[in-house]
Design a protein that fits this description.
Layout: H1 7-21, E1 30-36, E2 46-55, E3 58-62
Antiparallel strand pairs: 1-2, 2-3
Length: about 80
């Protein structure tokens, strides 16, 4: 068992069937990083990384984490 699997590999493997059913190619997924300088979505200075797919008049946001946390300030 390999422990050095990247988040991108986990994402691709975990969501492969769902993405395929939606007609989304993994190459369509783009990584977006946002630094929350004001503390709007957690602690000030926290970096949030999400993967975004905008296709077929839909927008998908996928966040892959290696730990859990409570988020505040969300809709």
């Amino acid at each position: 068992m390999a422990w050095n699997v990247s988040h991108e590999d986990l994402l691709r493997n975990f969501f492969a069937e769902e993405l395929k059913q939606e007609g989304i190619d993994y190459k369509d997924i783009k990584k977006f990083t946002y630094k929350d300088d004001q503390g709007l979505y957690g602690e000030k200075g926290t970096k949030h990384e999400v993967y975004i797919v905008a296709k077929n008049n839909k927008v998908y946001l996928i966040e892959v984490k290696s730990h859990g946390e409570i988020l505040t300030g969300l809709i």
